[in-house]
Amino acid sequence: MSLNAYEVFVAIVERGSFAAAAHQLNLSPSAVSHALSAFEQELGFTLFTRNRSGVRLTAGGEALLPTVREVLQSNEKLGQQASKLLGLEAGRVRIGAFSSVSVAWLPKIIRTFTDQYPKIEVVIEQGGYDDVAEWITKSQVDLGFITLPAAPGLDVTPLYADPLVCIAPPGFEPKSKAYMTVDELAEHNVVLQGTGYGKETEQLLASHRISVKSSARAIDDAAIIAIVESGLGVSVMPQLALLNYRSAVQVFPFYPAESRAIVLASLSQEGLAPAAKAMHAHIVVSVDKWAKGKTAST
């Protein structure tokens, strides 16, 4: 069984079709089909069922996938360690992140990292909190930005306490005029995020035992800001999510202060390949520097 067959198998799983896997691997569709057929013959069972909408893993494919990913990850780690012994910092690191980190932090992180390690390829996957945690667990990414509480079994490094704020339409005035309380949210229509994207709001409301009315839900930060700006309600957002958006919304801190804890997660820091270890260290140092700079300027 060849590593090429393992790569083809995983690429089909992640991309959902033979054609997309072929494009990713820079192979012809017939080469992908041939490699998979040979792999299935060696195994003695099929890995996918084919239909008009694409492919689906069989029960055997589902059972085999974690082991195949582990083999590919170990091979990547071996290659990186060999390159390091030769004095070359080479390899690939895969990062999972939610929207606000992808917009506010990752461009600077990737730029400064690749300046230092030009031979290391950086791959980014964006999704919700639950998506990123699942990708780490399934070894689809090496590192992921998530918020606490973290799923069991993840190795986490604290990065940043991101303040939660209330955004409101132009002309809105809270009772205190300067800040919002969580209790006051119950008096307004609250624009909520989709499942898996607004964990911090759910935790905030649950911890204060507050129920709110909501006539609007959205996934991405820009949509929530636009809905609030139009006057359809207020919303709870992390301060980080507002850094790169210009709008007429008003921003009020909560009193008492509320925040989400952003952490960098992996299956095991010790088990990371050299490229991922280098990225892990770079992220921790970068975020710490930005956080200290922000504290000094406030």
UniProtKB/TrEMBL annotation:
Q: Does the keyword Transcription regulation apply?
A: yes
What CDD domains does the record tag this protein with? PBP2_LTTR_substrate
Record domain HTH lysR-type: where:
1-58
In terms of Pfam families, this protein maps to: HTH_1 (PF00126), LysR_substrate (PF03466)
Q: Does the keyword Membrane apply?
A: no
Coiled-coil region: none
Entry-linked InterPro entries: HTH-type_LysR_regulators (IPR050950), LysR_HTH_N (IPR000847), LysR_subst-bd (IPR005119), WH-like_DNA-bd_sf (IPR036388), WH_DNA-bd_sf (IPR036390)
Report the leader peptide range: none
Listed A to Z, the keywords are:
DNA-binding, Transcription, Transcription regulation
Family that this chain belongs to: Belongs to the LysR transcriptional regulatory family.
PANTHER family in UniProt? HTH-TYPE TRANSCRIPTIONAL REGULATOR YBHD, NITROGEN ASSIMILATION TRANSCRIPTIONAL ACTIVATOR-RELATED
**Protein name (record):** LysR family transcriptional regulator
